[in-house]
Design a protein that fits this description.
mainly alpha
């Protein structure tokens, strides 16, 4: 998440420095960032190497296909790092072709393991979404995503 991006990015920078990796943080305007993301790390953006952006993964296409399939490099999609791995492609395609939920989940689990081992990204979870709640508010369920269901809570009188 991008709840508190500056301290999160500074923490990542400090942690990487501790293991000998020097990272320069270059804050840029949001629309500029999205343009870079559509183009990928090529030409004038080749020096960037990475960017910190929030994504919401709600299903396999959002989580895997558009970022890690070799056919998804820009300008076709957003595999901005240019990650190419035939085994990742095979697992993605097998998951897409499966109509059995258990088989698809097992295949995506293998893909996830491969991506963690290959590390084309550094996955950072920093979902410190501060919430202030009056004790009279009842029935609020903290979301497992960015989407808050406000049909459940009520105010106790």
């Amino acid at each position: 998440g991008q709840m508190l991006p500056l301290p999160m990015n500074e923490y990542v920078q400090e942690s990487l420095r501790d293991i000998g990796i020097d990272v320069e943080l270059v804050p840029i305007e949001w629309n500029t960032l999205t343009v870079w993301g559509r183009k990928g790390f090529v030409e004038e953006h080749a020096q960037a190497g990475a960017m910190n952006i929030s994504y919401n993964f709600v299903e396999p296409f959002s989580a895997f296909v558009r970022f890690f399939h070799s056919a998804s490099v820009p300008p076709r999609s957003v595999n901005i790092t240019g990650y190419i791995n035939p085994e990742a492609d095979r697992l993605i395609e097998a998951a897409e072709a499966s109509f059995e939920a258990q088989v698809r989940d097992e295949t995506l689990g293998k893909l996830h393991e491969l991506l963690i081992d290959d590390a084309p990204w550094i996955f950072v979870v920093h979902d410190l979404n501060p919430r202030a709640m009056n004790p009279k508010v009842k029935g609020f369920v903290p979301p497992q995503s960015w989407f808050v269901d406000l049909t459940l809570p009520w105010v106790e009188k």
